[in-house]
Amino acid sequence: MEDAALNDPVPAAAAATTAAPGAPAAVDPESMMMLNSMGFSELHATAALKSCNGDVERAADWLFSHADDLNGAVASINPVVSNASVGAVPGAGTVPGLDGIGRYELFGVVSHMGGNTACGHYVAHVKTDGQW
User: Is 125 a catalytic residue?
Assistant: First the structure.
């Protein structure tokens, strides 16, 4: 069996994927869906996938490790996008929820003590009558 194109040069991938600055990068829809299902916006997920060369596991780790300032981290990757628009949801904040403004109070935390999730102990900390 012979491959007629065996000795042909490999086409340059960079020339085929050149996009204008600020244009949305093409990402794998399945990777995008996985990150969206974790609660990340499309803009945040796109920036993470871009930063991690499309590796969805590394992108999820990148998102969680930058969770304290996700908008700033995305802006550092894609400076064309302003901080005001990073993670913005069209129409958000313009229509109040049917049951009022969301308000939450933490009443329980589960922590893990051990080397990994397969070994160790899980401990529940519950707030009862204002006391932990």
Answer: no
* 3-state SS assignment for residue 36: helix
- pTM of the predicted structure, to 2 decimals: 0.45
DSSP 8-state class, residue 116: E
- Residues 80 and 29: their CA atoms lie apart, in Å, by 23
**Which tokens is 25 given?**
């990068």
Residues forming a β-bridge with 126 = 108
Nearest of 85, 44, 80, 88 to residue 65 by alpha carbon: 44
| pLDDT-based confidence at residue 81 (cuts at 50, 70, 90) | low
**Hey, what are 83's tokens?**
């901080």
The rounded distance, in Å, linking the Cα atoms of 50 and 81 is 14
Secondary structure class of 74 (helix, strand, coil): helix
Q: DSSP 3-state assignment of 61?
A: helix
Residue 110, SS3?
Answer: strand
Q: Which of 44, 66, 121, 125 is catalytic?
A: 121
